[in-house]
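We now fix the convention by which a protein and its fold are recorded. The integers have meaning only within a learned vocabulary of local backbone shapes. The record below shows the convention in full.
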Amino acid sequence: MAPVAGAGARRYCRHRDNEGSMTSHRSTGCGRFERAGFVALAIGAAVLWPGPAAAEGAMAVGIARGGVAKGYATGFAINQPTVKAARSNAVEQCRRMKNSNADARSGCEVVVTFHNKCVASAIDPETGTPGAGWGVGGSQKTADSQALARCRVKAGSGRAEFCEVTDRMCDGDAK
């Protein structure tokens, strides 16, 4: 390809088509450098652009033998590249939860995966009570409400009012 004189930053490029005839077109660059620039831009956009692939989430819960009153652990993973990574990281976080006991941590397993959503956990802070719950929703308010509702059901009428959201976070574009 050979550049042909043109005005400004754009110029005309001339090359042979598949049948051997000479053709020309207006372009910002000719030949492989033009294509290389486009390819580099496309690769850069794919790597740097935050997209759905980087917004996988999961929540893991561990309940001690004998129920929540004997021990409860939670773990969250958000903005992970894959569902598998989110699941693995959530279980790992649950197993590392410091303010729980070994019995609860040993039972950690994924209870939900999500994409571009919010998650919350709620408990009755009194030791030895059964109130605990989690929720997932399109907004943090929805996730909080679900977690509190589950906690209140488990806590029973005598302890329902003490349930409080202890952990909350959003994945991807959720708020």
In short: Strands lie at 2-4, 11-16, 22-27, 56-63, 72-80, 109-115, 118-123, 132-137, 164-170. Residues 2-48 form one domain. The helical segments are 32-48, 83-95, 102-106, 140-155. The CA atoms of residues 23 and 40 lie 26 Å apart.
